[in-house]
Design goal:
This protein has one helix and seven strands, in the order H-E-E-E-E-E-E-E. With 147 residues, it is an alpha/beta fold.
Length: 147
């Protein structure tokens, strides 16, 4: 008889403690962060092609299994005090280019474009009609990745 009571109490405790813990953690109104946790997070996508134009970079990346999308990164982001962009040139042969879009507290912050140092690498491309893309760089304030 004592064994059944003990087992029943044990099962109830195992069921009740997680529920009590959830209620306790969900009741705080402020969002607690771990010690040293950054307010930044990033989304990283592998780059298929990079096109360098006078107005900025056109970055083609894979969207899903069969689709492609473009991100337009204005030259101003990478120059002067804008601080919205950084190009990091990699020399490693095994490195594949990536676009990393950083967010701070859910809002766009900046981008890092990791590219091959060698401009003859297969990920660097040439555009034949650069002028038609000039409008795509005007008024760009953030990068919205499509998936």
């Amino acid at each position: 008889m004592r064994f059944r009571v003990f087992v029943t109490l044990f099962v109830l405790a195992v069921i009740a403690f997680p529920v009590i813990g959830q209620e306790a953690s969900g009741s705080s109104s402020s969002k607690k962060k771990f010690k040293g946790e950054s307010e930044y997070y990033y989304i990283s996508v592998p780059v298929e092609r990079i096109y360098n134009t006078n107005k900025g970079y056109v970055v083609s990346y894979r969207r899903g299994a069969f689709g492609m999308s473009q991100a337009y990164l204005p030259t101003e982001w990478f120059e002067g005090t804008a601080g919205k962009g950084e190009v990091i040139r990699q020399a490693s042969a095994s490195f594949w280019p990536r676009l990393m879009v950083y967010y701070k507290d859910g809002e766009f912050s900046h981008v890092k474009l990791y590219v091959h140092r060698d401009s003859h690498h297969s990920t660097w491309g040439m555009l034949s009609d650069r002028e038609s893309l000039d409008g795509k760089f005007e008024g760009v304030e953030e990068v919205k990745l499509e998936f």
